[in-house]
Design a protein that fits this description.
Length: 426
């Protein structure tokens, strides 16, 4: 529905014009920002704050791993100590499938809740947003897919991220999945931004290095794509550049020593800054391709972004040399004596080096040569209709980018040119 509307409008006005108009609106759209509680113990302080708001009963949305690891305890102890009733719904799995959202809504209604706390990664926070909006509007979440489909805003939502990557604690969107059709569904509404977000690094110390790396590179991709895209504002640029510097300084530390609370806190804050940047300035070609890989092969979102980021940046570089040089300065890469071209090249090299340092593979093991054309077509469509990219990908560009991350054994054999017996007349 959304696609056909966009394609109709695109035919009438032309995509570049349509995107410029969307940029004008997006730059001016009032987007609320949550109150941030930051630091060790922030989830306890959130529990205390919620108790003061006098909610009837709170639905805690999370996943089974969070429950098993006991990460809910500081929050639930604070709620219990202040006599706030709550119900735990810990049925959310990656990509927040629709049937789980439906069960969450049923649980919210059955327990007569009037607020939600999301404690988990991006899927948990997005699920909580969808449950909160559907419950407030008494509508099925499928009918809320698209932009501003709810008459009412969601019930109050509080967020406690347990990974430093997605930025969902400050964004206007909820991405859920429809397992029946194998599609992702996006609900977008500025009222979906949580009221309070608690960034508690003590909840992140148990994250394994591979997840720390992938989620951290997702945050870096948000910051870079928001900065080099065409919808940035002075505020989103500030947020994006701060995030890049913090990620370069702290992601390797958090990866090496998961218990480094200072690095964990800086990463949590950086992911939130990057979220504030991209929720207005949007993302770009890396995300357009990564979403297809997630849908087709269920590749973790952050990992797909991390693998694609250096390749897509090299493709984009000629159009954003000056911006890449600024990113380099904030990342602490290169020297002020370098000219913009040299410094931008150093930044591209540094993204690759960061991936290597975090042991992120250079190729995508799941990618199949036979799928590339369809994946590229879907990625180009997503980028063309949604993202203010600095350099547009053609189908051939995108196929080449995808081929560049094919695992070596799956790469097509380059045919050896045979010598012709007799030259063809020209
Ligand atoms: Fe992302």
């Amino acid at each position: 529905m959304k696609s056909s509307l966009i394609s109709d409008m695109a035919r009438s006005f032309g995509l570049p014009k349509l995107k410029r108009a969307a940029g004008v609106v997006t730059r001016r759209l009032p987007i609320p920002q949550p109150l941030l509680l930051v630091g060790p113990g922030a989830s306890t302080r959130l529990g205390e704050a919620i108790a003061d708001f006098g909610h009837r009963r709170v639905l805690l949305v999370t996943d089974p791993v969070v429950t098993k690891l006991g990460l809910l305890t500081p929050l639930t102890d604070a709620l219990k100590a202040r006599g706030t009733a709550f119900v735990v719904f810990d049925d959310i799995s990656p990509d927040a499938p629709l049937p789980q959202i439906e069960r969450g809504i049923a649980c919210f209604n059955a327990a007569d809740c009037d607020a939600i706390v999301a404690l988990g990664g991006g899927s948990v926070m997005d699920a909580a947003k969808a449950i909160g909006l559907a419950a407030a509007n008494h509508k099925h979440p499928r009918t809320l897919v698209g932009y501003f489909k709810g008459l009412h805003g969601p019930v109050p939502i509080y967020a406690v991220p347990t990974t430093a990557g997605t930025g969902s604690e400050v964004t206007v969107a909820a991405v859920i999945s429809d397992p029946e059709n194998g599609t992702k569904l996006v609900i977008a509404d500025t009222r979906l931004v949580p009221t309070i977000a608690a960034l508690d690094p003590t909840l992140m110390t148990g994250l394994p290095p591979a997840i720390t790396a992938a989620t951290g590179m997702d945050a870096l991709t948000h910051a870079i794509e928001a900065y080099i895209g065409q919808w940035g504002t002075a505020h989103t640029d500030r947020m994006a550049l701060a995030a890049v510097g913090m990620i370069y300084r702290n992601l390797p530390l958090a990866w090496r020593d998961g218990n480094d609370l200072r690095a964990r806190e800086q990463m949590a804050l950086a992911a939130t800054y990057a979220g504030l940047a991209f929720t207005r300035a949007n993302v770009g070609n890396v995300h357009a391709i990564a979403h297809q890989l997630g849908g087709k092969y269920h590749v973790p979102h952050g990992l797909a972004n991390a693998i694609l980021l250096p390749r897509v940046l090299r493709f984009t570089a000629p159009t954003v040399t000056a911006k890449l040089a600024v990113l380099a300065r904030h990342a602490g890469v290169g020297s002020d004596r370098d000219n913009a071209t040299t410094r931008s090249r150093r930044f591209l090299d540094s993204v690759e080096a960061l991936n290597d340092a975090l042991q992120i593979p250079r190729h995508l093991a799941a990618l199949q040569q036979a799928d590339i054309a369809a994946l590229a077509a879907a990625a180009c469509w997503e980028a063309d209709t949604n993202y203010p990219v600095p350099r547009r990908m053609t189908q051939a560009d995108c196929e080449a980018l995808l081929r560049s991350v094919l695992p070596p054994e799956a790469s097509p054999v380059v045919p050896v040119k045979r010598k012709r017996r007799s030259p063809t007349p020209t």
